[in-house]
Amino acid sequence: MVSIKNITALEILDSRGNPTVEVTLYLSDGQKVVASVPSGISVGKYEALELRDKDPARYNGMGVLQAIRNVNEVIAPKLVNLDPVRQGSIDKLLIELDGTPNKSRLGSNAILAVSLAVCRAGAAAVNLPLYKYISELINANLPKTIDKMPTPTFNIINGGKHGTGNLDFQEFHVVPASNKRYHEALRIGEEVYQKLKQVLTSRNAIHSVGDEGGFTPNLYTNTDALELMMEAIHMTRYRFGIEIFLGLDLAASNFKSGENYHIKDQATSMNTLEFIEYLANIHRDYRLLILEDPLSEDDWQGWKTITERLGKEVLLVGDDFLATNPDRLQKAISEKACSAILVKPNQIGSVSETLAVIKMARTGGLKIIVSHRSGETNDAFVADLAVGVSADYVKFGAPARGERVAKYNRLIHIESELKLI
Asked: Where is Mg(2+) annotated to bind (predicted)?
């Protein structure tokens, strides 16, 4: 039997220049695997806790040396000689070692880095591609044919905490039609991205990029961004509403104050019902396919109302609202409060818990969108995860910046291996 020989952790940098955790796992047969974890800046309050040192003398308090020590000194000795294919029991052990509801003792960054490495090691031990191994994990080792690729949704304008304070809404997406093959969808997104750069340049607008590779133009309103995207789409040969659509991630908790939502498009703030009406008008004008976090994470009644109002035409996606958390997901399913879930492994903190949430969402009839974070590494685990769980969509940012492109290119390789081109 192949077993875990050793696990070591290092402090590396993510795409925003902040420290994060990288784990190397050595197997008894000489193989080794590496995994690293991302970090979000738009963090929901129901996410598992990422452990930071808070030492102002190092990395402005953002260091992760304590998380590194937790891997090297607490976790690693407990996992030596274990079988890496026992993902569920190892993740259970990690959760028990931490012993807190939100992984605040060892840190979700420490736990997830090890969990990802174990999953990658399990695939190596049985000589399977990672996506096929994940497919077996989520399907309880029953044979499963992977016959589809997820549809990418491209964040080509960055606002909110991902931008430069230029726009209230956090992400402005173009979404190719789901009947496009993956490599075609990737080309569509990239071509629109390049056309948008031309549009911005011609208007002397800022076209530097934000955390997720999308442009951060200096605009007056959020709808200005949608208009520029429409102009870019019309410069291509792709038919809007047939081959390509628009989507928004509002991250609405960030511009809610008290009971009201305030955005620069409106002179006065809006209550929940007024804001839902405003979003319904946006949908009427731009035929949105996706609305992510359109309301704040605690506005449960508002979520139910907007899902009832728009849910048959638009995917209402819970990110901060659900936080890849089974308890919040179960409540959302029972109350019909959204129609899709954004899955981020570091919101919950382990592979097994992530797979359990995906299974619950599938059973509840929700669409699955597997997502990166704004602070990423070149680790493409989430690309394999998306294929392995048959996700409907992936959200990896713009088709630019190395840490985003690593995920998109990994999907190109998987599509080729599966002969789905």
From this structure: 249, 292, 319
